[in-house]
Amino acid sequence: MSNAIGIIYANSATDGLQGLALERPIAAVPFGGRYRILDFALSSMVNSGIRTIGLVTPHHYRPLLDHLGAGKAWFLDRKDGGLFILPGAFHGLVGTNHTFCIKDLKNNIEYLDKDFAENVVISSGDQIFNINFKNALEFHNDKQADATVIYKEINNPCDLTEKVFFKMDKDQKVSTIQDKKDLEKTKLLHPYFVNMLIIRREILLDIIEKFSSSGCIDLIDILTANLEVLNVYGSPTCSLIGTIRTIKDYFDRSMDLLNLEVRGRLWLGEDRIHTKIKDNPPTQYTSQAKVSNSLIASGCSIAGEVVNSIIFRGVILEQGCQIKNSIILPKCHIHAHAQTNYTILDKSVTVNGENILKGSLNNPLVVLKKTVI
Amino acid sequence: MRKQECVAMLLAGGQGSRLGGLTRIRAKPAVSFCGKYRIIDFTLSNCANSQINTVGVLIQYKPFLLNSYIGLGSAWDLDNLYGGVHILPPFLSEKEGRWYNGTANAVYQNCEFIDFYDPEYVIILSGDHVYKMDYTLMLKFHKEKNSDITIATIQVPWEEASRFGILSIDGDERITKFAEKPAQPDSNLASMGVYIFNWSTLKQALLADAQDAQSENDFGKNIIPQQLQQGKRVYAYQFQGYWRDVGTIESYYQANMESLRAGHFLSIFDPRFRIFSNEDILPPHYVGSTAQIENSLVCNGCIVHGEVNNSILAPGVYVGKGVKIKDSILLPYAKVHTGSVIRKTIVGENAEIMRRCIIGAEGQIAPDQEGITVVEDNHIISEGSIIEAGRNI
Question: If you write DSSP's letter for every residue of B173-195 in order, what string do you get?
């Protein structure tokens, strides 16, 4: 019996993902061969025993709802609880930096109001992770915390401009927020918030009531500004692979999957990542196939050469084509002797024979959905 | 309960003893096939694709893994508003309890189930055949011929005809003669073990058969010949397509291997008639830098570091470095460790082959079962073992 319900902010937007997030929210961007980014947050909550999950939707929610359906693949088609769609507030500009906007919750106050759960687990929908929240929930209850933030430690904070760093006392209670300038002076491990937290439902309702009139304000800002009055604790995780905000993030985190240690943390433990099932047949290799250090999903037909790449479901690679350091999304068709290097092909792209597509490590080439080259 | 036009009775209780180690812990319909499927997927998907919403699955032999695989039938979209999948085990009644004693007896004992839906027609299916078939076409034929019983048939090679139930038909496709496994077959038209009965005809036949102490209570041996003798209208529906009985190690192996051929008959890739399965959700398979995969099928969750040639890797299979796999079928979660060589072998589910083994080695004498080696489910073969071709471990 879980005493927590979940909220996933699936409306985080970015303009850093180029074509990939043009017509879909980050949460619906395909990732890791067969998943969408949202699957990681959703599966983590379900695997933690949470059976009531509200999903804050962005304004272009079609791909998201298409993927989710009634939530059956995550065991969320339930009588008691289940999946709730929480229409997000319309924020106008893409790229606002709010993570957990209070206004989105104000619009959906019924969802929080009518439930009896003690706690609410809140996560953003743009992170790649496989975290079981059971330990954090236990810790949260033991400490009788008002809120528990999940954190990760890092010793090289220079490239993490958007992160919030903080200090904790011996009891893991968050005491102060740290200025980033101070961090660079020391070489210690520094904890920072990852975008997941646990908060008492009653306190969350209080906060929404008090702050909703002040427009778009972020729950994390409210917590950090009220550390004297609220009991905020920190609980560590090491199972966060990363956040996807830019095309470089997307490329690097995808390539991380070729590393056994990363796959181990994400996929090979007891808790599975669930996703929509397509009932594809197995992947077929012809006698000309040559594959090395790559992840290949089901339903593909492979006759070409694939090196250091990630191939999604239903991709056709014809004889003599060369796929290197590339990410090929579902249903792409690469004709004979075409080549790609440091390229991300969105869904259903066709690359005709002999074409050569080439990006670079720091600037992978992105080809829009359904493009014919 | 809403009346159904056609109810399917799926015979899935047989032991499948000729599959040896593959059915030691599970019923034949639950045996893995062609990587990601299990044999029963084909029949259940055929039902789903033929709008047959009510399926009774008759089970008896080691049913747990089969039952848990079928569940509510949601993987095949058979968890319906009306009907659905019903698991029908043998049961106890007021006076006595009985095991299912023959295929006809199994259906006879579940007359109440069929009466509950009060259908016009009952289609009898087998859970151990691999084929894609739209039963609505056969039902249409059954109605057009105003038939009492329609038997699905397929042409088999003459030399194999004596392994099947063989039918002779007249110009109107009405069956004139039926012979179960004849030594001298009159035709090469074989019964596929798929029958459509008018429910009234079937019920009468089952009641009569139950009274007959001499009967083996079998559809092919008793019910069909008796009905022919009584002059019932029995027609042959000629199915054009791919159909395989995978009841023996040899036929199971051959049918799997056929799926590797280009332009595969079954066309499992055809999205208009999909075969559904109740798969574990596993990540994409990983192919390491030392791997070499040729002419093979590979499923999700596999990790491949060695050479795989002309083989099928089911979900979650591990192939270590320096391993050579040729002409083999690795069932779900089988593991083959560094340096082992595997030739023409079926490696059972969760079986583990430790380092430097040779499985399917050429022996002194001519091997049994066409040289196919079988490693039983959950079996662990210790380091450095050499196992000759054709053995069952």
Answer: SBEEEEEES-SS-S-SEEEEEEE
